[in-house]
Write a structure and sequence with these properties.
Layout (H helix, E strand, L loop, with lengths): L2 H16 L5 H22 L2 H33 L12 E5 L4 E3 L7 E7 L2 E3 L4 E3 L4 E2 L1 H5 L9 E3 L3 E7 H10 L1 H32 L12 E12 L5 E11 L3 E5 L9 E5 L8 E11 L4 E7 L2
Helix pairs in contact: 1-2, 2-3, 3-6, 5-6
Length: 301
């Protein structure tokens, strides 16, 4: 075996190894190395179509690797820095309400998200108040039926900046900082609502002579767009765009087309790229409705 053949085998081994890699940055790096070795090999044996192919693939792999590294850096910065509303302003429209006006009612269609620029509003069902600089309406946009979860009433003259649902979902995918902000906002509001409900139930239980049975509220009825990757029942890897719903701090229910076994570990990402904010989840039960397959998962700590 000559050294030319050895170069060819090395190129083949590098290319073959990329099909077993699960992380995109190492995959792109090894792919780029394989491209360089293939270019050398093809030039030595005068196989010019192969040379042209890998000469074109090399800058593509390098470009995608750099983009992935930049995205990961942005996600890390987004998870540790404060969110600024400034970049959203070009997408938003001003809407004003008078004291006593109803912004939306529970059960209305959730077609936009609101940023309270000035004023004071109240969540009627919970008795909670929202003040300047806060978002409202985000939970309804990600809920399964796109319905409002509470009635919002103005307790003062109020000015909102609003952004339509399609722009919210578009920015969720395109801007890591905005996507992480929304996820953190929804979970933070969910946990706060749980505390208020449990406090309310505890007070009622203390007043009740018979200790009436308490209503347990431990899951948020929302639908969050995610990407899921894992291995199906047949051992084949998959990567699909889907939704996660009934979210709690411990787990969720994932709509998924690919059949998976119980105890399978899935990787859940909050954007379309194969990196960034990643949650590992273990399948604890399988379920199916008339129109959708899914599985209940437990988040791995």
């Amino acid at each position: 075996m000559g050294w030319t053949d050895m170069i060819g085998y090395l190129a083949a081994i590098l290319m073959f190894s990329t099909f077993y890699m699960k992380k995109m940055i190492p995959l792109r790096a090894v792919g780029a190395a394989a491209n360089v070795v293939f270019v050398v090999y093809a030039s030595l044996v005068h196989v010019y179509p192969l040379l042209i192919l890998h000469a074109c693939l090399f800058p593509l792999n390098i470009t995608r690797m750099i983009q992935m590294m930049i995205l990961i850096k942005k996600v890390k910065e987004a998870s540790t820095s404060d969110f600024s509303i400034d970049f959203l302003v070009p997408f938003m429209t001003k809407e004003s309400f008078k004291k006593g006006d109803v912004v939306f009612r529970k059960g209305d269609n959730a077609d936009k998200m609101f940023y309270l620029q000035k004023g004071l509003v109240r969540l009627e069902e919970l008795g909670a108040f929202i003040t300047d600089g806060q978002m409202i309406g985000e939970i309804g946009i990600f809920s399964p039926h796109k319905k409002r979860m509470a009635t919002v009433v103005c307790d003062a003259d109020t000015m909102f900046l609003t952004i339509p649902e399609n722009k919210v979902l578009q920015l969720y995918y395109q801007n890591p900082k905005f996507g992480i902000y929304l996820v953190q906002l929804i979970i933070r509001r969910f946990l706060k609502n749980m505390e208020e409900i449990r406090g309310f139930e505890a007070r009622n239980a203390a007043k009740s002579e018979g200790g009436a049975e308490r209503r347990r509220v431990d899951r948020l009825n929302m639908r969050l767009p995610v990407m899921v990757k894992g291995t199906d029942e047949g051992g084949q890897s998959f990567f699909e765009e889907t939704y996660m719903e009934n979210l709690s701090p411990d787990g969720a229910y994932i709509i998924i087309r690919n059949p998976v076994d119980k105890d399978t570990v899935l990787s859940v990402l909050t954007d379309r790229s194969n990196s960034g904010l990643e949650i590992m989840a273990k399948v604890v039960r399988k379920g199916q409705t008339e129109s959708e397959k899914g599985c209940g998962v437990s988040f791995l700590k």
